[in-house]
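Annex B. Sample input.
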Amino acid sequence: MWPEGIVSLPTGRLLVTSFVLDTIFLFDPITGGSALVAGRLGSGYEDGTGSKARFCGVRGMVLIERERLLYVCDVANSRVRMLTLPPALFDPAHEL
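Annex B, continued. Sample output.
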């Protein structure tokens, strides 16, 4: 997965960027489960939700928890991208 950036959610789960896979995953350190949050294999630039988004070299992230906003460094596209996270990611009962 080649993690580059990690942000902790209030549930204890982590959002992790994969620079090589151009994706953002949700990871549960207790169960070991993971789920794709945004991006898909293959570099590019495309706005969209979930797997419709495309990145090229995602690295660091900043979470604005109150507004469910995630700012992501999309390095090779020379952009800072903003994602609105679904409320389910902040629910500890949300299954991966």
